[in-house]
Amino acid sequence: MKRIEAIIRPTKVGRVCTALEKVGHTDLMISQIEGRGRQNGIRYQLRGKTYNVDLMSRARVEVIVKDREVDEIIKTISGAVLTGETGDGEIFIHAMEDAIRIGTGESGASAV
What we know:
This protein has 112 residues and is α+β, with helices and mostly antiparallel strands. It has one domain: 2-Layer Sandwich (Alpha-Beta Plaits), CATH 3.30.70. It has helices at residues 13-22, 70-81; strands at residues 2-8, 29-35, 42-46, 49-53, 56-65, 89-95. The strands form two sheets. The chain has a four-stranded antiparallel sheet with strand order 2-5-1-6, with helices on one face. It has a two-stranded antiparallel sheet with strand order 3-4. Strand 3 and strand 4 form a beta hairpin. The protein is elongated. The model has no long low-confidence stretch (mean pLDDT 90).
């Protein structure tokens, strides 16, 4: 099993959910986060003052999948968020040792 973690633009969450649903994967977790990356933030002017915004709003989408589903899910998420511009996001893949479904007691890949 793997945990796929995608850090994406918040405006792309709906597209990711729809794309994952189309490939039959509806189970996911979404968190609103802030972070810094290779971009040095944004500088903007408001009423004559210059402001620097170092932390950018992002969404974290997490999906737990069976090993055989990893490539398809990565392609699905990438296709839903790709604009070709800086800031499209990152995808991280983490190995999962085990999973347990509390209500049924199922464990391992059957719990996913």
